[in-house]
């Protein structure tokens, strides 16, 4: 499959300097950039079918965690924003199970796509993970499964909706809740969000939608899937430096294995 059969290059001319600059401007201003229909239907159908064919290899996990994705801090009460627990439950297929000829792998590896990412994200280079599991993941959320409120440790995330749920399963976020660099953790705002008292932004994403998101200081979640159709999301993970591996502890937590 050629790149023009994967990406709608007429709507998204990712090699064009002016287009890249416009994308970068919007992303810098809002912390989120949404491209509906970025991946064409034929390619997204193939990616979906590849995922479903490997569904028996999904690693499923349900975990409780705080929004900071850190161990409990004994200096605070259990009901303090620092230690309040939320639930994340999902299934995952790892990079090593993706077919070599998959349109998803072609997209991930395409030099013009990586160059586009560098320009929009303000990075010098985009490198795959050195470990065999972490570069491309497919996440599956069945009915009732969710990704609890949290902040990311990384500076950006790139996701592709492969199969949208029939009901629920929306990506929700609140911008600028904390300032991790200054150590301002936004406890009061976090409590409001966990109590359902704060307005949230919602990203609507049909199959084929590519999303850039800065989640280090903006809290976000995937609401519970309320329908019978599985929500399938591809996560494209890169590093600014070569040779980076996800830690063994993280791999065991996310994937249940090291290789």
From TrEMBL:
Lineage: superkingdom: Bacteria
Pfam families on file: HalD
InterPro entries: BesD/HalB-like
Name used for this protein in its record: Fe2OG dioxygenase domain-containing protein
Organism from which the protein derives: Ruegeria atlantica
């Amino acid at each position: 499959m050629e790149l023009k059969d994967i990406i709608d290059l007429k709507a998204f001319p990712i090699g064009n300097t002016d287009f890249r600059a416009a994308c970068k401007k919007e992303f810098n201003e809002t912390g989120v950039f949404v491209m509906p229909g970025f991946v064409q239907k034929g390619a997204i159908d193939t990616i979906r079918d590849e995922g479903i064919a490997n569904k028996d290899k999904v690693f499923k996990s349900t975990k409780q965690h705080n929004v900071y994705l850190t161990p409990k801090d004994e200096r605070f009460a259990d009901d303090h924003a620092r230690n309040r627990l939320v639930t994340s439950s999902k299934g995952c297929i790892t990079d090593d199970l993706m077919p070599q000829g998959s349109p998803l792998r072609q997209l991930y590896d395409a030099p013009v796509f990586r160059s586009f990412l560098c320009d929009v994200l303000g990075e010098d280079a985009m490198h795959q993970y050195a470990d065999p599991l972490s570069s491309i993941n497919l996440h599956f959320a069945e009915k009732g499964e969710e990704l609890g409120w949290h902040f990311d440790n990384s500076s950006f995330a790139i996701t592709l909706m492969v199969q949208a749920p029939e009901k629920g399963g929306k990506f929700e976020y609140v911008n600028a809740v904390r300032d991790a660099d200054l150590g301002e953790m936004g406890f009061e705002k976090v409590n409001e969000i966990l109590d359902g008292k704060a307005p949230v932004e919602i990203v609507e994403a049909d199959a084929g939608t590519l999303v850039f998101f800065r989640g280090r200081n903006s809290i976000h979640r995937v609401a519970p899937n309320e329908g019978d159709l599985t929500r399938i999301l591809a996560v494209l993970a890169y590093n600014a430096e070569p040779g980076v591996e996800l830690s063994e502890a993280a791999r065991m937590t996310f994937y249940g294995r090291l290789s």
